[in-house]
């Protein structure tokens, strides 16, 4: 049987972290009373017009720059028409013709064979980033055959990041999205929390034989975690392969991932091809961005967005942070990945290093093996750790000064987890874990043991 | 209030899309031919214009919360509501598929 090449592309919608919405002044907030964060424009009442939020443009420019994109100094807004109860205008304002950023790339890393020590770097091309409106939320009430609509989310700014089909499996897709998530969180352009719907991923999946053209692709939606993303993609790849090997065909359809059953199913409302009737948004002139060279002399600062100014102020991206950690502390690359993968862990590590004489290369073991595994066991975040960096540094100092053995240190750490407010030194004294340094005392103990043996 | 067949025929006449009538089809074809004259203009290298406002400045608003919090006002015109949610029919109801030759008109 000829081998199959799976092809995976992603469309990622990231909610922009801003106080107000993309085209109106209503608030952006998760979990508020229904329809309380809705302006007349968001409800699409006649006579209202869109007014672009400066912060949303800046967020998109930052993200484009971080993903190595070309920023389009002139981009356009369009209307994408379709009917759904949570889209009151009957169209979404998006950027279909000329988006704000194009042609970027994202590098991400994978462990080969689940071994952290063997990491490989891959790249996925970013086709474009566009600004667009989010829709409201529909709650389906099947028992009463109705849909309840909450427009709080309608009009919230989104950045759609389109990744080219350069990935081949669920693992690659999940790794790419994870790296994007870290980048967005570092930039602050999106909080990118998947569980709160701030980061939504749709996967485009197809399979083909080597040398042949790409197969028909399906779109998989309704994925709300990285784990499910990998599962859904891998399931869909298998489903398509089995279907084709059994002589069937793949329909160009939209499927939803059912997390309970672990499979993809056709989506009820997305049958048949949609005709979105794209047209230019007549109420918004082109969005013009400037750089240091093209900066107009006598324009109001507030009305000008300078790409170079934003570029100069970009924070260190995760990949740069990792390199710096490796260089500064002599830890392994895979350690730097784990440090950045856990919110607050890198800061915790650096804080401990500052407060202890123990070499960073040794400290990292305590952070990744002991601290992290305890946090995972008890489902705690670094912020919720009962052991502060101060306490851990204190403990490691005792170990470094050879006042206790490392076995004893682990015992003390276990006691510290209980959060009883005792210092490491207090616990050591309580449990009599001090290392004996007195030569004579040691000789006496050894002699007593030997004598004891002789008497048996 | 139903739309009568006479009114419908009238509308079809106005819209010139009565394909049951040969004269209507011819009239439509002539209208399309007339519009096709637009293709005779050479637009090579000319950027399409979407709006005469294309040179206007796109105003950028500061990211401040200035509106919202008007649930009552928004819901006052809703025919149906449930605990401050708008009520809509379940999902999208697709139009029934027509057999060939059928129209939606009654009595035709």
From TrEMBL, chain A:
Gene Ontology molecular functions: ATP binding; glutaminyl-tRNA synthase (glutamine-hydrolyzing) activity; transferase activity
Catalytic activity: L-glutamyl-tRNA(Gln) + L-glutamine + ATP + H2O = L-glutaminyl-tRNA(Gln) + L-glutamate + ADP + phosphate + H(+)
Protein family (similarity comment): Belongs to the GatB/GatE family. GatB subfamily.
SMART domains: GatB_Yqey
Name of the protein in question: GATB amidotransferase
Family matches, as Pfam families: GatB_N (PF02934), GatB_Yqey (PF02637)
Coiled coil spans: none
InterPro entries in the cross-refs: Asn/Gln-tRNA_amidoTrfase_suB/E (IPR017959), Asn/Gln-tRNA_Trfase_suB/E_cat (IPR006075), Asn/Gln_amidotransferase (IPR018027), Asn/Gln_tRNA_amidoTrase-B-like (IPR003789), GatB (IPR004413), Gln_synth/guanido_kin_cat_dom (IPR014746)
Protein keywords: ATP-binding, Ligase, Nucleotide-binding, Protein biosynthesis, Transferase
Domain Asn/Gln amidotransferase per the UniProt entry, residue ranges: 347-456
Gene Ontology CC: glutamyl-tRNA(Gln) amidotransferase complex; mitochondrion
Biological process per Gene Ontology, one example term: mitochondrial translation
Automatic annotation (TrEMBL), chain B:
GO biological process terms, semicolon-separated: glutaminyl-tRNAGln biosynthesis via transamidation; mitochondrial translation; regulation of translational fidelity
SUPFAM superfamilies hit by this protein: Glu-tRNAGln amidotransferase C subunit
Molecular-function GO terms, alphabetical: transferase activity
Listed HAMAP family: GatC
PANTHER family: GLUTAMYL-TRNA(GLN) AMIDOTRANSFERASE SUBUNIT C, MITOCHONDRIAL
Domain of life of the native organism: Eukaryota
Keyword set, alphabetical order: Transferase
Entry keyword annotation includes Transferase: yes
GO cellular component: glutamyl-tRNA(Gln) amidotransferase complex; mitochondrion
Signal peptide: none
Record flagged with keyword Transferase: yes
A Pfam family recorded for this sequence: GatC
InterPro entries, A to Z: Asp/Glu-ADT_sf_sub_c, GatC
Identification of the protein by name: GATC amidotransferase
